[in-house]
Design brief:
Helices cover 40% and strands 20% of the residues. The strands form three sheets. The chain has a six-stranded parallel sheet, sandwiched between helices. Strands 8-10-11 form a three-stranded antiparallel sheet, with helices on one face. The chain has a two-stranded antiparallel ribbon with strand order 7-9. The longest helix has 16 residues. The chain folds into two domains: 173 residues, 3-Layer(aba) Sandwich (Rossmann fold), CATH 3.40.50.620; 89 residues, 2-Layer Sandwich (Pantoate--beta-alanine Ligase, Chain: A,domain 2), CATH 3.30.1300.10. The protein has 283 residues and is of the alpha/beta class. The protein is globular. The structure holds pantoate. Pantoate binds next to strand 2 and helix 7.
């Protein structure tokens, strides 16, 4: 694996590689890699001929400065994992490399995606995500971008970003990887004690409970009961449990039994914010 820290070196390398007509896959991450990230790398390795991973903890997407400061950094282990997956290139830029003094912040039009669910509870988060992903895509210009379904709303935001920028990159959304307990893999799980990891499984359990219980008609009581499951399991606070249109993320209060829908949840456990989602109408 080749490691680049500067945009110029990385671009020179990609330009030379592209002369042979190869396809480029890109897996952007914030590090603290786990099996979920590795499944993105594997998807890239099977779809494209050159896999580039980036590790950059993007300050612009943290609405809470203490969350940014506490974000786990495990760079040496990350490099070992990337090498074991035969990742071709690691891009490891500094903050000034991505955001130089003359960086022009853009404003992205994300409509309701920006103010609902994650957008409501993490103001500015998706503008920050777009800021960095736009920048990274313009540097790497990949044929394929790989993102995890665990960040369902982020996948929708990036789909919209790709549409708006007109960049020729296709997005592949990779299924959520889970622990045997059902807990969705996340870098934030590193901040949970063994006991909290056990309690954290309630988030998947509550979503599964919605899936097995939902019937056409009103959905409000389901979200409320699922929230109770989380609080009784020891979650300190639930930001939302939403049953939403799988395409637009608009909340569905009265389901017709046909529309594809998802259940999404976010809550705090011992100060760590966890999110998860499942489809209620597909696998
Ligand atoms: O999902 C993440 O890890 C981040 O939001 C991303 C896409 C790498 C942008 O910083």
């Amino acid at each position: 694996m080749i490691l680049f820290k500067t945009i110029n070196e990385l671009k020179k390398y990609i330009t030379a590689k592209r002369l042979s007509g190869i396809s480029v896959g890109f897996v952007p991450t914030m590090g603290a890699l786990h099996s979920g990230h590795l499944s993105l790398l594997r998807a890239s390795k099977t779809t494209t001929e050159l896999t580039i991973c980036s590790i950059f903890v993007n300050p612009a997407q943290f609405n809470d400065p203490s969350d940014y400061q506490q974000y786990p950094v495990t760079i040496e282990q990350d490099i070992r994992l990337l090498e074991s997956e035969n990742c071709d290139v690691l891009f490891l830029p500094s903050v000034p490399e991505i955001y130089p003094a003359d960086f022009q912040k853009k404003q992205y039009k994300l409509g309701a995606l920006e103010t609902s669910l994650e957008g409501e509870f993490r103001p500015g988060h998706f503008q920050g995500v777009c800021q960095v992903v736009d920048r990274l895509l313009s540097i790497v210009e990949p044929d394929w971008l790989f993102l995890g379904r665990k960040d369902y709303q982020q996948c929708m935001v990036i789909t919209e970003l790709i549409r708006q920028t007109g960049i020729h990159t296709r997005l592949q959304i990779v299924p959520t990887m889970r622990e045997a307990s059902g807990l969705a893999m996340s870098s934030r799980n590193l901040r949970l004690t063994a006991q909290d990891r056990e309690k954290a499984t309630a988030i998947y359990r509550s979503l599964q409970w919605i899936k097995t219980t939902i019937r056409p008609g009103t959905t409000l009581a389901l979200s409320e009961a699922a929230e109770k499951i989380l609080l009784e399991a020891g979650f300190d606070k639930v930001d939302y449990i939403s049953i939403a249109d799988a395409q637009s993320l608009e909340p569905i209060e009265n389901w017709d039994g046909q529309l594809p829908i998802v259940a999404l949840a976010a809550g705090f456990l011992s100060g760590v914010r966890l999110i998860d989602n499942i489809s209620l109408t597909g696998e």
